[in-house]
Amino acid sequence: HARIEEADSIAAGKIVLGERPSVDLITLDLSMTGTTGLGGLMSLRIAYPRIPILVVSALDEPRIVREVLQY
Question: Do residues 12 and 35 touch, judged by C-beta distance below 8 A?
Answer without folding.
Answer: no
